[in-house]
Amino acid sequence: MQIVHLSDIHYSDAYFIPEIADSMVDSINLLEPDLVVITGDLTENGFSAEYDGVKRFIDRIKCENKVLVPGNHDSKNAGYLHFEDLFENRFSSQSFMDVTVVGADSSQPDINEGHIGRENYGWIKEAFSGENFKVFALHHHLVPIPLAGRENNVLVDAGDVLELLNRCKVNLVLCGHCHIPWVWNLNNMLVVNAGTLCSSKTRGKTTQCYNLIQADNENSDGNWKVRVSRVFSKGNMELVTEAVM
Ligand SMILES: [Fe+2]
Ligand SMILES: [Fe+2]
Protein backbone atom coordinates (compact mmCIF):
# COMPACT_ATOMS: atom_id res chain seq x y z
CA MET A 1 0.00 0.00 0.00
CA GLN A 2 1.31 3.42 -0.97
CA ILE A 3 0.19 6.64 0.72
CA VAL A 4 1.23 10.03 -0.64
CA HIS A 5 1.20 12.75 1.99
CA LEU A 6 1.46 16.32 0.74
CA SER A 7 0.82 19.65 2.39
CA ASP A 8 0.89 23.42 2.29
CA ILE A 9 0.18 24.15 -1.37
CA HIS A 10 -0.58 27.81 -0.48
CA TYR A 11 -2.36 28.38 -3.79
CA SER A 12 -2.11 32.12 -4.57
CA ASP A 13 -0.55 34.49 -7.09
CA ALA A 14 2.20 35.24 -4.62
CA TYR A 15 3.50 31.85 -3.50
CA PHE A 16 2.32 29.01 -5.77
CA ILE A 17 5.03 27.88 -8.23
CA PRO A 18 3.32 26.29 -11.28
CA GLU A 19 6.46 24.58 -12.66
CA ILE A 20 7.14 22.78 -9.38
CA ALA A 21 3.44 21.98 -8.99
CA ASP A 22 3.41 20.38 -12.47
CA SER A 23 6.44 18.19 -11.80
CA MET A 24 5.03 17.13 -8.41
CA VAL A 25 1.70 16.08 -9.96
CA ASP A 26 3.51 14.10 -12.67
CA SER A 27 5.65 12.32 -10.10
CA ILE A 28 2.69 11.51 -7.82
CA ASN A 29 0.64 10.17 -10.74
CA LEU A 30 3.53 7.93 -11.81
CA LEU A 31 3.46 6.32 -8.34
CA GLU A 32 -0.26 5.47 -8.68
CA PRO A 33 -0.81 5.81 -4.91
CA ASP A 34 -3.64 4.01 -3.13
CA LEU A 35 -4.36 7.03 -0.97
CA VAL A 36 -3.46 10.73 -1.02
CA VAL A 37 -3.62 12.75 2.21
CA ILE A 38 -3.41 16.55 2.05
CA THR A 39 -2.82 18.23 5.40
CA GLY A 40 -3.98 21.79 4.92
CA ASP A 41 -2.94 25.26 3.87
CA LEU A 42 -4.34 24.53 0.44
CA THR A 43 -4.70 28.29 -0.05
CA GLU A 44 -2.85 31.36 1.19
CA ASN A 45 -5.80 33.48 2.28
CA GLY A 46 -8.88 31.27 2.08
CA PHE A 47 -10.30 33.32 -0.80
CA SER A 48 -12.85 31.83 -3.19
CA ALA A 49 -10.63 32.23 -6.29
CA GLU A 50 -7.73 30.51 -4.49
CA TYR A 51 -10.00 27.62 -3.54
CA ASP A 52 -11.15 27.29 -7.17
CA GLY A 53 -7.53 27.22 -8.31
CA VAL A 54 -6.40 24.67 -5.78
CA LYS A 55 -9.42 22.46 -6.50
CA ARG A 56 -8.41 22.34 -10.19
CA PHE A 57 -4.87 21.49 -9.12
CA ILE A 58 -5.91 18.71 -6.71
CA ASP A 59 -8.23 17.24 -9.36
CA ARG A 60 -5.15 16.63 -11.53
CA ILE A 61 -3.84 14.15 -8.92
CA LYS A 62 -5.08 10.77 -10.11
CA CYS A 63 -6.25 8.88 -7.05
CA GLU A 64 -9.77 7.88 -6.10
CA ASN A 65 -9.04 8.03 -2.38
CA LYS A 66 -8.17 11.48 -1.11
CA VAL A 67 -8.44 12.81 2.42
CA LEU A 68 -8.09 16.54 3.02
CA VAL A 69 -8.10 18.71 6.13
CA PRO A 70 -7.96 22.51 6.23
CA GLY A 71 -5.06 24.52 7.65
CA ASN A 72 -4.99 27.85 9.44
CA HIS A 73 -4.59 29.72 6.15
CA ASP A 74 -7.68 28.00 4.71
CA SER A 75 -9.78 29.24 7.61
CA LYS A 76 -8.79 32.88 7.09
CA ASN A 77 -11.48 35.20 5.75
CA ALA A 78 -14.15 32.58 6.52
CA GLY A 79 -12.49 30.34 3.92
CA TYR A 80 -13.67 27.23 5.77
CA LEU A 81 -17.05 27.82 4.05
CA HIS A 82 -15.41 27.32 0.63
CA PHE A 83 -13.60 24.26 1.98
CA GLU A 84 -16.93 22.73 2.98
CA ASP A 85 -18.44 23.52 -0.45
CA LEU A 86 -15.57 21.99 -2.42
CA PHE A 87 -14.29 19.18 -0.18
CA GLU A 88 -17.30 18.56 2.08
CA ASN A 89 -16.18 17.60 5.56
CA ARG A 90 -13.58 19.35 7.72
CA PHE A 91 -13.68 16.25 9.97
CA SER A 92 -13.87 12.78 8.45
CA SER A 93 -13.33 9.10 9.09
CA GLN A 94 -12.89 6.78 6.13
CA SER A 95 -11.57 3.29 5.51
CA PHE A 96 -9.81 2.18 2.34
CA MET A 97 -8.73 -1.46 2.09
CA ASP A 98 -6.77 -2.10 5.34
CA VAL A 99 -6.43 1.55 6.30
CA THR A 100 -8.58 3.79 8.45
CA VAL A 101 -7.91 7.51 8.07
CA VAL A 102 -9.31 10.10 10.44
CA GLY A 103 -8.93 13.70 9.32
CA ALA A 104 -9.49 16.54 11.77
CA ASP A 105 -9.69 20.29 11.28
CA SER A 106 -7.22 21.72 13.80
CA SER A 107 -7.71 25.30 12.62
CA GLN A 108 -9.86 28.08 14.02
CA PRO A 109 -10.96 31.12 11.99
CA ASP A 110 -8.28 33.82 11.91
CA ILE A 111 -6.24 32.22 14.70
CA ASN A 112 -2.92 30.58 13.94
CA GLU A 113 -2.99 28.22 16.92
CA GLY A 114 -4.26 24.69 16.46
CA HIS A 115 -6.58 22.57 18.55
CA ILE A 116 -8.65 19.39 18.20
CA GLY A 117 -10.95 19.83 21.20
CA ARG A 118 -12.39 17.43 23.79
CA GLU A 119 -15.71 17.29 21.95
CA ASN A 120 -13.98 15.33 19.18
CA TYR A 121 -12.10 12.75 21.25
CA GLY A 122 -15.07 10.38 21.52
CA TRP A 123 -15.75 9.86 17.82
CA ILE A 124 -12.02 9.70 17.04
CA LYS A 125 -11.67 6.84 19.54
CA GLU A 126 -14.70 5.12 18.01
CA ALA A 127 -13.31 5.54 14.47
CA PHE A 128 -10.06 3.81 15.48
CA SER A 129 -11.72 0.87 17.26
CA GLY A 130 -10.90 -1.71 14.53
CA GLU A 131 -7.65 -3.49 13.65
CA ASN A 132 -6.80 -1.57 10.45
CA PHE A 133 -3.63 0.41 9.80
CA LYS A 134 -4.56 3.68 11.53
CA VAL A 135 -3.74 7.12 10.17
CA PHE A 136 -4.58 10.47 11.82
CA ALA A 137 -4.30 13.60 9.63
CA LEU A 138 -4.24 17.18 10.87
CA HIS A 139 -2.60 20.45 9.91
CA HIS A 140 -0.83 21.64 13.07
CA HIS A 141 2.08 19.94 14.79
CA LEU A 142 1.36 17.26 17.33
CA VAL A 143 4.85 17.52 18.82
CA PRO A 144 7.54 20.18 18.37
CA ILE A 145 9.90 19.90 15.41
CA PRO A 146 13.21 21.60 14.64
CA LEU A 147 13.42 24.98 12.85
CA ALA A 148 9.87 25.93 13.86
CA GLY A 149 11.08 28.89 15.88
CA ARG A 150 9.49 29.91 19.16
CA GLU A 151 7.15 27.01 19.78
CA ASN A 152 3.55 28.04 19.25
CA ASN A 153 2.68 25.63 16.45
CA VAL A 154 1.79 22.61 18.55
CA LEU A 155 -1.87 21.90 19.28
CA VAL A 156 -2.96 23.61 22.47
CA ASP A 157 -4.37 20.22 23.56
CA ALA A 158 -1.39 18.23 22.20
CA GLY A 159 -0.85 16.19 25.38
CA ASP A 160 -4.40 14.88 25.46
CA VAL A 161 -4.47 14.19 21.70
CA LEU A 162 -1.13 12.34 21.92
CA GLU A 163 -2.43 10.16 24.73
CA LEU A 164 -5.67 9.51 22.82
CA LEU A 165 -3.89 8.48 19.62
CA ASN A 166 -1.42 6.34 21.54
CA ARG A 167 -4.28 4.60 23.38
CA CYS A 168 -6.01 3.99 20.02
CA LYS A 169 -2.75 2.42 18.71
CA VAL A 170 -2.56 4.84 15.81
CA ASN A 171 0.31 3.89 13.46
CA LEU A 172 0.82 7.12 11.58
CA VAL A 173 0.13 10.83 12.23
CA LEU A 174 0.41 13.17 9.25
CA CYS A 175 0.91 16.94 9.78
CA GLY A 176 1.95 20.05 7.87
CA HIS A 177 2.00 23.73 8.88
CA CYS A 178 5.62 24.86 9.31
CA HIS A 179 6.89 23.46 5.98
CA ILE A 180 9.61 21.39 7.63
CA PRO A 181 9.81 17.73 6.68
CA TRP A 182 10.48 15.69 9.82
CA VAL A 183 9.67 12.33 11.41
CA TRP A 184 9.43 11.33 15.08
CA ASN A 185 8.81 7.79 16.28
CA LEU A 186 6.89 8.02 19.56
CA ASN A 187 5.84 4.81 21.30
CA ASN A 188 5.82 3.07 17.91
CA MET A 189 3.65 5.79 16.35
CA LEU A 190 5.27 7.64 13.46
CA VAL A 191 4.58 11.38 13.52
CA VAL A 192 5.35 12.60 10.02
CA ASN A 193 5.54 16.26 9.04
CA ALA A 194 5.55 17.41 5.42
CA GLY A 195 7.31 20.32 3.75
CA THR A 196 5.48 22.61 1.35
CA LEU A 197 4.61 20.80 -1.88
CA CYS A 198 5.02 23.60 -4.40
CA SER A 199 5.03 27.02 -2.76
CA SER A 200 7.91 29.44 -2.36
CA LYS A 201 7.32 29.45 1.40
CA THR A 202 10.25 27.19 2.24
CA ARG A 203 11.82 27.60 5.65
CA GLY A 204 15.60 27.75 6.05
CA LYS A 205 17.33 25.38 3.65
CA THR A 206 14.37 23.05 3.17
CA THR A 207 13.04 22.54 -0.36
CA GLN A 208 9.66 21.57 -1.80
CA CYS A 209 8.79 17.92 -1.26
CA TYR A 210 6.12 15.39 -0.34
CA ASN A 211 6.14 12.18 1.68
CA LEU A 212 5.69 8.67 0.34
CA ILE A 213 4.63 6.12 2.96
CA GLN A 214 4.77 2.44 2.05
CA ALA A 215 2.99 0.13 4.49
CA ASP A 216 2.88 -3.64 4.05
CA ASN A 217 1.66 -6.53 6.18
CA GLU A 218 2.61 -9.34 3.84
CA ASN A 219 3.98 -11.66 6.54
CA SER A 220 0.50 -12.04 8.06
CA ASP A 221 2.10 -11.80 11.53
CA GLY A 222 -0.07 -8.78 12.36
CA ASN A 223 2.87 -6.39 12.00
CA TRP A 224 3.11 -3.54 9.52
CA LYS A 225 6.40 -2.75 7.84
CA VAL A 226 6.42 0.99 7.20
CA ARG A 227 8.85 3.04 5.13
CA VAL A 228 8.72 6.83 4.97
CA SER A 229 10.50 8.58 2.09
CA ARG A 230 10.69 12.15 0.89
CA VAL A 231 10.25 12.94 -2.79
CA PHE A 232 11.63 16.19 -4.18
CA SER A 233 10.62 18.24 -7.21
CA LYS A 234 13.46 16.90 -9.37
CA GLY A 235 12.12 13.40 -8.76
CA ASN A 236 14.86 12.29 -6.35
CA MET A 237 13.73 10.24 -3.37
CA GLU A 238 15.27 9.88 0.09
CA LEU A 239 14.39 7.11 2.53
CA VAL A 240 13.92 8.69 5.97
CA THR A 241 12.60 6.02 8.33
CA GLU A 242 11.74 2.34 8.46
CA ALA A 243 9.70 0.81 11.26
CA VAL A 244 7.90 -2.40 12.13
CA MET A 245 4.78 -1.85 14.15
FE1 LIG B 1 1.59 26.52 5.58
FE1 LIG C 1 -0.26 26.48 8.53
Task: Tell me what the structure shows.
This protein has a single domain (2-194, 220-244), classed as Purple Acid Phosphatase, chain A, domain 2, CATH 3.60.21. The protein has five helices and twelve strands. The protein has helices at 18-31, 48-59, 80-87, 121-127, 158-167, and strands at residues 2-6, 35-39, 66-69, 92-96, 99-103, 133-137, 172-175, 182-186, 189-193, 209-216, 225-232, 237-244. The relative contact order is 0.17. It binds fe (ii) ion (2 copies). One fe (ii) ion binds at residues 8, 10, 41, 71, 73, 177, 179.
Topology (elements, then pairings):
Elements: E1 2-6, H1 18-31, E2 35-39, H2 48-59, E3 66-69, H3 80-87, E4 92-96, E5 99-103, H4 121-127, E6 133-137, H5 158-167, E7 172-175, E8 182-186, E9 189-193, E10 209-216, E11 225-232, E12 237-244
Parallel strand pairs: 1-2, 2-3, 5-6, 6-7, 7-9
Antiparallel strand pairs: 1-10, 4-5, 8-9, 10-11, 11-12
Bound molecules: fe (ii) ion (2 copies).
InterPro entries: Calcineurin-like_PHP, CNP_phosphodiesterase-III, Metallo-depent_PP-like
Domain Calcineurin-like phosphoesterase: 1-181
Protein name: Metallophosphoesterase
Beta percentage is: 25-35%
Q: How many helices in DSSP terms? A: 5
Shape: globular
Helix percentage range: 10-25%
Number of DSSP strand runs: 12
Structural class, by secondary structure, is alpha/beta
Domain module tally: 1
Q: CATH homologous superfamily, by name?
A: Metallo-dependent phosphatases
Strand order of the largest sheet: 3-2-1-10-11-12
Low-confidence stretches: none
Associated small molecules: fe (ii) ion
- Output the helix-strand order: EHEHEHEEHEHEEEEEE
What's the mean pLDDT score? 96
Query: What is the distance, rounded to the nearest whole angstrom, between the alpha carbons of the first and last residues?
Result: 15 Å
